[in-house]
Each structure stands twice: as structure tokens, then as C-alpha cells.
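Table S2 (continued). Query chain:
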Amino acid sequence: MTTTRQHAPWIQPFTLKGEHVTLVPLEAGHEAELVDAVQDGNVWDTWFAAVPSPDGMRQEIEWRLGLAEEGRMVPFTVLDAQGRIAGMTAYMNVDAANRRLEIGHTWYRRSVQRTSLNTEAKLLLLRHAFEQLDCIAVGFRTAFFNQPSRRAIERLGAKLEGVWRNHLILPDGTLRDTCYYSIINGEWPAVERHLTWLLARAASAAESA
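Corresponding output:
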């Protein structure tokens, strides 16, 4: 008789907490507050970024949780410093065999954009990936025309590897070019120092204001 050994997923759900942000495992019960968050600035109303609409939030949550069951995604709900739901993010395209993953499917309510929330969220996720999961690389992808997202990724210290032309067919039939960025494990110490410095500089500026 042959016994099939079940292996635990490479990444189990977990929580990360910082000064400006807390990342908790996504739950179906977060739907109402996520709908409220996505309506802050109507951040879903853009053609080049795949941000769920208020009406599509339940389907988005189910999709993310389905990928989590398959071991392909680790989805998070993002909370701000006051504990209010501010958006979503995820480890995605999880490749346990090669110790690689991407950080993506991220969106935030308009009122927390351009604050330290995203910088610290990325610092926490990258630190966990490189120091706890022993990743050899962490990737990021975004639409060619999503200039704010590209600037935010480059500000982290990620390097552009290339552009996938005609990568996706969007719901309206538009063809999307996708920019792929990455940070490799040897770059992590410098990236960590840079992100820590950015947070300290923002804190100093806030104290001086």
C-alpha cells in the first residue's frame, strides 16, 4: 500500500505589523470595509490597473482565497495605523521550488496614498520574503501606462528587467504591455537600508511640520 505524504504549503497565512501598517490574512468578512476603501477616491476607476470595483469585491475576494487554497497566492488585507481597512496586497505567483514570488495585486484607498503606509508594507513583505522564506528573488509587475505604480516600484529599489509587450488582453479589448521589476537576494541589504531611511526621513519631516 502506497502512502501519499502531504507537504505543508511553503507559506502559511501570517500577520505583519509595523508603525504605519498592519497586514492580516484576507477574509471574506472584510468585504464591506474593502468596498468602502475602494470607493475612497474611486481608485477602481482606471483602465490600466486591475483594481476591483465595489460590485466586484466579493468575486475578487473569492478569487484571491481560491488561489490561496492552491498555494499560488498569500493574500492580505491592509490596515492603516488606526486599524481601518486601507486596501489589499498579496504574495502572488508563489514558486516554492525556486524560492521566488511576486508582490502585487495591491491597491489602497486614496487617502493613504503617498504616505508611509506603502513603504512600510513593502519593507515588511520584503523582509519576510528574504529573511524568513529565504527567497532568491521577489518580483513586481505593473502596466506600462501605470506611471504612479512604476515610480513607486522603482522608489523601492527594484530594477526593471523588461517589458512584456501585448502581455494581456484587458476586458475592453485593449492590449496591455507589462513592466516586470525585481529585487534579488544579494540586493536586499541595500534595499532594506534604503526603505528604512525613507521611513525615518518621512518621520523626521512630519515632526518638523
